[in-house]
């Protein structure tokens, strides 16, 4: 295993793609902060606004709350540019903005709108435009299991993998999170690990007041409580596999 902080210079560019607000911080907050601290140009795309989720200790529109929170987290992590999939730098040229809906948890009713599952090829096109414009050396996203199996996480993995394959840039590699919180499923022995900038990751987690209560922390992990009441441990160590 290699500690990722030694791999990059300030000329490097990295693109992170997550399914919902807070996924980026739980999955890769330490790596984003570490790369940004080294001067790497870090970009973030979030596929949905997480509007099917619940909010904890907040009132108001779920989507608006979570949009505000991910903006706070991106700033805390040192992200240079951020947008949602289907807008800004993450949409195919000459098209109006488009909105990808949060499909909800596995037992949620099916959706008739534009989700990542129903609009997969559109999502791939939007991601290809972002990759072509940003020219990242690494792209980081969910693993093939979607961590704990959320269908939007799996769809994001598949769309990112297809977009990277279509762009076919020999100077670009695709990394996936080997483990994630919430009892996520690993897809094998990691190639790279990151255990730095945990305090910055915690600062980003604190942006998500509608999603978490941080119960206690030390230098190596945080215990959080989520909206549904379950408690989870968020370690300082993030692990990644290079799959392309």
From TrEMBL:
Classification via Gene3D superfamilies: LmbE-like (3.40.50.10320)
GO biological process, one term: glycoside metabolic process
Entries under SUPFAM superfamilies matching the protein: LmbE-like (SSF102588)
GO molecular function, one term: hydrolase activity, acting on carbon-nitrogen (but not peptide) bonds, in linear amides
Source taxon at top rank: Bacteria
Signal peptide: none
UniProt entry keywords in alphabetical sequence: Zinc
Pfam families reported for this sequence: PIG-L (PF02585)
UniProt name for this protein: GlcNAc-PI de-N-acetylase
Organism whose genome encodes this protein: Tropheryma whipplei (strain Twist)
């Amino acid at each position: 295993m290699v500690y990722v902080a030694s791999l990059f210079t300030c000329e490097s560019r990295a693109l992170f793609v997550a399914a919902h607000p807070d996924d980026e911080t739980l999955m890769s907050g330490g790596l984003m902060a570490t790369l940004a601290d080294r001067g790497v140009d870090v970009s973030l795309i979030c596929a949905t606004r997480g509007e099917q989720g619940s909010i904890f200790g907040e009132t108001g529109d779920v989507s608006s709350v979570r949009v505000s929170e991910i903006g706070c987290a991106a700033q805390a992590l040192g992200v240079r540019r951020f947008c949602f999939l289907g807008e800004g730098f993450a949409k195919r040229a000459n098209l109006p903005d488009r909105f990808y809906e949060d499909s909800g948890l596995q037992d949620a009713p099916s959706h008739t709108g534009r989700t990542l599952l129903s609009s997969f090829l559109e999502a791939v096109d939007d991601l290809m435009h972002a990759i072509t414009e940003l020219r990242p050396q690494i792209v980081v996203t969910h693993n093939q299991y979607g961590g704990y199996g959320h269908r939007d996480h799996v769809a994001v993995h598949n769309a990112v993998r297809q977009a990277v394959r279509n762009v076919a840039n020999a100077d670009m590699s695709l990394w996936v999170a080997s483990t994630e919180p919430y009892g996520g499923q690993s897809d094998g022995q990691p190639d790279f690990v990151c255990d730095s900038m945990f305090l910055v990751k915690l600062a980003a987690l604190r942006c998500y007041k509608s999603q978490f209560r941080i119960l206690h922390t030390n230098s190596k992990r945080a215990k959080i409580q989520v909206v549904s009441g379950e408690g989870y441990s968020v370690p300082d160590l993030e692990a990644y596999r290079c799959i392309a």
